[in-house]
Write the structure tokens for this entry.
Amino acid sequence: MDWSPLTYITILILLLLPMSAPDDRLALDKTLSPGTTIVSDGGAFTLGFFSPANSTPANLYLGIWYTAIPELTVVWVANRETPVANDTTSAPKLFLTNSSNLVLADGNGGHIFWTTNITTTTSSSSSILPTAVLLNTGSLILRSPNGTTLWQSFEHPTDTFLPGMKIRANYKTHDRDILVSWKRPGDPSPGSFSYSSDPGSFLQFFLWNGSRPVYRSAPWTGYQVSSQYQANNSNLIHQSIINNDEEIYLTYSLADGAAETRYVLTYSGKFQLQSWNKSLSAWAVLGEWPNWECDRYGYCGPYGYCDNTEVLPTCKCLEGFQPASTGEWSSGRFSDGCRRKEVLQCGDGFSPLPSMKVPDGFVHVLNRSMEECAAECARNCSCVGYAQVNLSSSARGDSTRCFMWSGELIDMEKKIGGNVAGSETLHLRVAGLAASGT
């Protein structure tokens, strides 16, 4: 093929022209306004402005959602507490400052609705300018000129927990990542429900309604990876808990080829695992917590536990206890719980109760073997129970975990099977049991 000199010159000019900025990022010379979007490299997620269905009055929010899912499913919202009026008087815009901050403001820049609010030493004269990039994981990240991540939306979650995210708790600062529900379907503002690690121990997770606990996970027993929710004879989710000197965090990943899957804290107070069903064009709920009434925090009252080995989970009393109110118990109301049949003595022994989700309100004692944990509880007359496990993952100088309880025992379950994550043996001090039974 013969090409003319003019063709070669044209090609050379095209090669020398600067390439346009990728559609997955926002640079200093670019703004994002209603009607325009940024799509992650790979196309999984979109960043833009949205107005929720049934939103009254009509408000605009800056958010991230699944690109390919026809039902608008928002996974992160920037200005959930400061919505923008959806009118034409002063359209909002998202822009990047030369101080490496993302800012959402009105069209005139006079009113700021949201900002990353970070402090950097970035110089506007730098030849490499700061950028904001939407990753294909769904995380919006802010990068400094040298490539350092200054801020990321994964560290500021709203109601959704995506693969690769971390729900963290910092041992030194006591900062925790908290999921907060939407207020209602058309209102992304913070609702009354939240989900986070236990602020006291960091070893368990709570679902709260305001300050009232609704659901509590079993305390961490040392596992690193837990695979669950099988699909087509393979595990769909691989959940991990990482514990080191600085922090402990929960994260998870999906099997190759898995559908879009996420955890979400709903406005009605359910922590759900949802997976997108293409054939039904709807979100399928794979798991939900609390799963039933018996699963709710403290449902069986003090010294009562939910027996999940029954066809219909029901409340029962611990060994050595009986219903505090037989009438209430027989009518299906268990909040009064159970009471001891006999007064407990200091020399009474312990009975092992296997496959239990152990009670809330424990004292965590470090560096105790099973024998040392048992002996320390036995010596303490106020200690009514203990549990000990060997940790398979810990970088904090302890390879064991010893829990002890005094006072009321609350929020217990009997698990199905003995190898379930979070299932362990509770050693309960029982009135009249000889110490040799420990």
Q: What stands out?
A: Residues 301-437 form one domain. Residues 5-21, 122-126 have pLDDT under 50 and may be disordered. The longest strand covers residues 187-197. The CA atoms of residues 329 and 413 lie 17 Å apart.
